[in-house]
Amino acid sequence: MIEGIENIRAIAWDFNGVLNTAGDSWRAALRAELGLDPEAFEQAVFKRNRRALQIGEDDILDRLEAFVAESGFEGNAEDILEVLLEQDNAPDRELLLMIAQLDRAGVAQVMATNCDARRARFLAVEGGWAERFDAIFASGEMGVAKPDAGFFQRIEEAMSLAPEEFLLIDDRERNIDAADTRGWQVWHYQSGGAMALAQALMPLLLRAEE
What we know:
Oligomer: single chain
Largest sheet: 5 strands, parallel
Radius of gyration: 18 Å
Strand order of the largest sheet: 3-2-1-4-5
């Protein structure tokens, strides 16, 4: 059971490691569909100052265009971006059902994720996540990323709720610790942990049956 669950008015869901089960499937897709070495690609595109991508200082498309120019890849940057975006969105079906039930129970729900702005827009529209949530908070659009306190503050201000009225569901311990320090309720999600989460959220889930 989550202490203080009766005070929770909004749930903030992390994407990677919680809602998204894609893992590293993009690696195999880059190799199979585009003939790229995923290790070399990751080193060139993501390993250099990843935070600049996360908080919107760098545009992923600019990095991909630089990679194409330097690597001699015969396709274009848009081809690579399309594969990355489509592969890195595999919703956990059990959690989708839970989200729908919480929605019927009248609990506000948002996505709170560290990702670049282009990916955030893809997830919202093509991925269909904007239809499931009250809002999507992405670091690339906000200019601040978890675990910075400012990330959580921005969500509080946007939702007009106090810290203790939020529950963060996240797989990263540093994010959980940061939210807990700020006064949020937290749930450290473990891979395949939908059942344990459902049991913890049961008082909220049961509202949908009332």
